[in-house]
């Protein structure tokens, strides 16, 4: 086994792996038929404050096929990152100073929400430069535009002081990821923890 990275030793330990794995697991619940994304918000002392996945707002009928097609889905679907913040608000929990774990680099609208809610750090699994849909066959057409959007998110995070961190650990359970692989992206075999 290779030595853990310094950032794992100094800041994350196994908590980072635990919460990132949880973000993928939560994403499995996504109502979005194409994109399964989850987000987990945790306090500085490792308490889960909120989770969210892609889906319609409460009470909105998500059985109508037309609402799942572009461009309608853009107006009906809440991204996981925003949903996790709103779910915290729904139960009166503050996310100020919390960290968010999520697979993809947040889009600009989610970045605004993250900044304005007081979240201090975003840990993302996929590279920002590759944007959403890295290595996936499903979202190839979105890859380049999303990468450009991610640059706008990055600019806002930099100016606001929200830290972003590329995830460097291992995911705990490769079966969870395999379920998501149909719509996300396959992971190299060596990245899966036995
Ligand atoms: Zn978003």
N-to-C SSE series? HHEEHHEHEHEH
- Number of helices, counting only DSSP H or I runs of 4 residues or more: 7
Strand content: 5-15%
Helix content: 25-40%
Write out the strand line-up for the largest beta sheet, numbering strands in chain order. Answer: 2-1-3-4-5
Unreliable stretches covering 5 or more consecutive residues = 1-13, 133-141, 182-188, 190-194
Largest sheet: 5 strands, mixed
Name the shape in a single word.
Answer: globular
Derived from helix and strand composition plus strand pairing, the structural class reads: alpha/beta
How many beta-strand segments?
5
Mean pLDDT equals 80
Bound molecules: zinc ion
| Cα separation of the termini | 12 Å
The radius of gyration is 16 Å
Describe this structure in words.
39% of the residues lie in helices and 12% in strands. With 194 residues, it is of the alpha/beta class. Strands 2-1-3-4-5 form a 5-stranded mixed beta sheet, with helices on both faces. The model is unreliable at 1-13, 133-141, 182-188 and 190-194 (pLDDT under 50). The protein has helices at 6-12, 14-27, 72-76, 80-90, 108-117, 140-160, 174-180; strands at 38-42, 48-53, 99-102, 121-124, 163-166.
